[in-house]
Amino acid sequence: MTLQFGGTDALIILSAYAVLMIVIGWLAGRGKKLGKSVGDYYLAGRNLGFITLFFTLYATQYSGNTIVGYAPTAYREGFSWIQSVPFMTAIIGVYLIFAPRLYVIAKRAKFVTPTDWISYRFESKKVTIVAILLMLWGLGNYLLEQLVAIGHAVSGLTGGAIPYGYAVIGFILVMLIYEWLGGMRAVALTDVLQGIILLVGIIVVLIGAMTLAGGSLGNISQSIAATEPQKIGVPDLQTNINWISMILLAGIGAAVYPHAVQRIYSARSERTLKRSFARMAWMPPITTGLVLVVGIICIVLYPGMDTGESEQVIGVLANDIASMNTFYYWMMIIFFGGIVGAIVSTADSVLLSFSSMVSHDIYGKYINPNASDERKVKVGKFVGVIVVFLLLWIAWNPPGTLYQIFVLKFELLIQVAPCFLLGIYWKRLRSTPVFWGMVVGAAIAGLMTLTGNNTLYGIHGGIVGLAANFTICIIGSLIIPVSDSYRTKIKNKTSLENNGVNM
Amino acid sequence: MKEPIQKKWIWVGFVLLIAFNAPWYLPEGMIEPYILGIPFWLSLVSCFLSSCVPI
Questions:
Q1: Residue A501's pLDDT band (boundaries 50, 70, 90)?
Q2: How many structural domains is chain A composed of?
Q3: What share of chain A in percent tops pLDDT 90?
Q4: Whole-number Å distance between alpha carbons of A119 and A140
Q5: What pLDDT was estimated at residue A502?
Q6: B 1-55 near A (Cβ less than 8 A)
Q7: Which of A97, A104, A221 sits opposite B39 (nearest CB)?
Q8: CB contacts < 8 Å between A and B, how many?
Q9: Is residue A500 part of a domain?
Q10: In chain A, whose CA is at the least distance from the CA of B28?
Q11: How far is B15 from chain A (nearest CA, A)?
């Protein structure tokens, strides 16, 4: 998207923003010898307080796509896109199912990555390896999306003054520098700033859009009912089924994202964790809910856009708001800076998580089990650089065939959910059914996507695969005989007896 | 520690959110009546949603 405002002013704001991020990274890591411990580097010493934890959960869950992607969807689909609010709320609900207990176990057993839980619970190399592959695949594709989005956002905001390629490389370097300097602590602290800018930006753009529309929500509704009634009426059955499927897909998928799980491990106390989740439950209405209203207003402001044009609708709106007066001009620059920040804040969390899984899980468990923490952190940093530039190469040289494999994200990642949701409570759950459940679930989801059948009667491939996955896990575990000693072992492993954990 | 999953209202909230947030039980294309400027079905969906927010 090319914005008519911005240019040099945006360049100044983005440069200031980049410098600020690096300063925060330096302050976060100053005097802490972060490279000596994986717990300090990847989990901020397991000591994130309420404000930091809340904002890092917020900035990680809501990326720039929440605005530049969701507003055009609301424009095209109309009021039925209110589903973006419940599926964000569902994520918090799913966290509440497993996070408090996982937190206690993680603190006791000193987990660093989600894989630590899986290998601790199932003691199975094959389950661990499949779970690592699924999670890394999901994370890699998610990171790829964010890197492409950074380039488009910066290039658009500066009116092409920073070309796409330079924008991506520039912000990646900034991200790597502050991440190397301060690890998870730097990521979490920059998330506070990025989260605040994003929230303020959404509110300002909504006020600007309401001012441009010059009417109440009632007038806007009636105007849409008169011109495009399909965007305001109760949606058809298939859309409703897709809506329910989306709540399940996003709710479960986003809650078991490795970087989300690592935020559970990073909480200072269980109370901090619960308070952060309680506040997070209020964020969907004031984030995706407000973005929905912005998209709806755009239906009235810019009628008749086709799909391609509607993708640019936030840029078009921002241009019009910026041209109202100087205040709105600067607010729109900050707003788009906030979008870049939101993308970066998601990308940095994903990259850190990716690095931790490669260095701690693959290198530390299978390649060099005797490696020191310092060595693992160094490997993680090195892998992070390699991965980012490999993904960039893919982004700039997209494969002619099988491009769909780079779209697979939630659909594959969600297949690790039974390891968490069932594994944490059901002592009878065994490793063999879990392994086959993940393999079959991923195969179904992957095949559906690769054959262009993303949904079945509106149900996402990931959910179809997950249903098969859960079925295999449950029936398989019921069939396999279980000894009393196994039950006792799992009971002890998953118990809430905290042995000194700070509650 | 009292875990959230031991609270019954969490599960009630979940059922409401998953089963009744999408308005499949209302006639397709229904718009009116309006409540506070928005269609009735949207108000209903928002009610199911707000019942889950205290989660």
A1: very low
A2: 1
A3: 29
A4: 21
A5: 42
A6: 1, 3-5, 10, 13-14, 17-19, 21-24, 26-31, 34, 36-39, 41-42, 45-46, 49, 52-55
A7: A221
A8: 109
A9: no
A10: A234
A11: 11
Flag whether A499 is in a domain: no
Going by C-alpha positions, the residue among A83, A40, A89 that lies closest to residue A61 is A89
- Residues of B in Cβ contact (< 8 Å) with A496: 1, 3
Q: Are A153 and A340 in contact (CB under 8 A)?
A: yes
Check if the beta carbon of residue A500 is closer than 8 Å to that of residue A461.
no
Judge whether A254 lies within some domain: yes
> What CATH number has the domain bearing residue A318?
1.20.1730.10
Tally Cβ neighbours within 10 Å of residue A12.
Answer: 12
Q: How far is A260 from B5, CA to CA, in rounded Å?
A: 19
Residue A502 lies in a domain: no
Q: What is the DSSP string of A149-170?
A: HHHHHHHHHTTTSS-HHHHHHH
CB-CB under 8 Å, A96 with B55: yes
ipTM of the complex: 0.90
The two three-digit tokens of residue A421, written as one number: 């949701």
Which amino acid is located at A446 in the chain?
A: G
Max mean pLDDT range (A25-29, A177-181, A263-267, A364-368): A263-267
Residue A53 structural domain: 8-493
Q: Do B22 and A241 touch (CB under 8 A)?
A: yes
Cβ distance of B30 and A233 shorter than 8 Å: yes
Q: Which residue, among A409, A390, A419, A466, has the nearest Cα to A139 in the 3D structure?
A: A409
| More confidently predicted of A157 and A24 | A24
Cβ within 8 Å, pair B17-A92? no
Q: Which residues of B are less than 8 Å from A503 in CB distance?
A: 1
